[in-house]
Amino acid sequence: MVRLFLLSLFLIIAYPFSGFLLAQTESIPNENPLKVGVAGSPPFAKYNEQTFQGISVELWQEIAEINNLQYQLIAQPGVKAGIDQVIAGELDILIGPVSITAERFQKVAFTQPYFNAKIGLLISREKTSVWSRIRPIFRVAVISSVGGLFFILFIVGNLIWLAESRRNSEQFPRHYVKGVGNGMWFALVTLTTVGYGDKSPVTKIGKAITSAWMLITMVAASSLTAGIATVMTLLLSAETTEQFKQPEDIRGKQIAVISGTTGEKWAQTYEARLLPSPNLDQALERLKSGQAQGVMFDVPALKYYLYQHPEAPFQIADLSIALEDYGFVLPLDNDLIRELNIAIVELKQSGRLEEIMNREIQGDFDN
């Protein structure tokens, strides 16, 4: 009886606190850390066996701290492999420079975009030689401009000779070759406004021709000089990139791509001859060896590589292929995406995301 009485008394006392204890137990968060995959290239994802760095990694660390999330970072061999792991349930989240596409949206969910990137083409930069510098001089546009100038000088030289050869034979001899040669010399020094004074017309017709020629050269000389200079500038600047001026120029070319990336998809779209590589380093090796005529990949990664390797004989072709957004990848049936989106927007608005990017790219990287 005594035991029964004590048990009943304990239950009466403990009952009011049972709801409180139950509520405390239910509010304790799940201690199992999130499995977060990391894939992609610098400056967004840089990792080895022990450390993880990059814009995407630091952004995720800020988001996890805001939401008090426990996680474990796991390196992935590539973006496609990481997405497959998310679909299979082996990863809870995939971070890195993962482009948001309609095809991927059918299989996984994406967070709010946190970066807008371009798809570009890295090509070899030709070594400068003496011939490469003087070769534009022999192009048709330059030769035709110079030829046109000499033709005009020849016409004016003939007109001056015809007007002056009888009364001013000392300066413009009656011998055709010498006389016209002196006339062309006179037209040239007048054109250039040098005016040596060694030749001058004395007849009214000769003075009239000279007056008309001077008025014409005031307008024509600057335009002609500017035209030749423009042609030369364009030819010199186009020496190394003239092969790729628009995306359609990629058709039929040997283009190295990273397997499973959107760069590979765009190269297929423009009917390039693909040389798939597992990572950017191997794709660059194919460009160095001459196997590939270009590497199609995300411009941020290509710019970062050139910044880290200023001696590399590469440059980004001046053509626009596509614009894409980066986001984090989650399974379709997730409960975290709203909290992650709120955190990304807050980091954008506060300027914190821009600070992370500037620090990671050492202030010398431009989107």
From TrEMBL:
<feature type="domain" description="Ionotropic glutamate receptor C-terminal">
    <location>
        <begin position="33"/>
        <end position="363"/>
    </location>
</feature>
<keyword id="KW-0812">Transmembrane</keyword>
<keyword id="KW-1133">Transmembrane helix</keyword>
<feature type="transmembrane region" description="Helical">
    <location>
        <begin position="208"/>
        <end position="236"/>
    </location>
</feature>
<feature type="transmembrane region" description="Helical">
    <location>
        <begin position="175"/>
        <end position="196"/>
    </location>
</feature>
<dbReference type="GO" id="GO:0016020">
    <property type="term" value="C:membrane"/>
</dbReference>
<dbReference type="InterPro" id="IPR001320">
    <property type="entry name" value="Iontro_rcpt_C"/>
</dbReference>
<dbReference type="InterPro" id="IPR001638">
    <property type="entry name" value="Solute-binding_3/MltF_N"/>
</dbReference>
<feature type="domain" description="Solute-binding protein family 3/N-terminal">
    <location>
        <begin position="33"/>
        <end position="364"/>
    </location>
</feature>
<keyword id="KW-0472">Membrane</keyword>
<protein>
    <submittedName>
        <fullName>Possible ligand gated channel (GIC family) protein</fullName>
    </submittedName>
</protein>
<feature type="transmembrane region" description="Helical">
    <location>
        <begin position="137"/>
        <end position="163"/>
    </location>
</feature>
<dbReference type="InterPro" id="IPR013099">
    <property type="entry name" value="K_chnl_dom"/>
</dbReference>
<dbReference type="Pfam" id="PF07885">
    <property type="entry name" value="Ion_trans_2"/>
</dbReference>
<keyword id="KW-0732">Signal</keyword>
<dbReference type="Pfam" id="PF00497">
    <property type="entry name" value="SBP_bac_3"/>
</dbReference>
<dbReference type="GO" id="GO:0015276">
    <property type="term" value="F:ligand-gated monoatomic ion channel activity"/>
</dbReference>
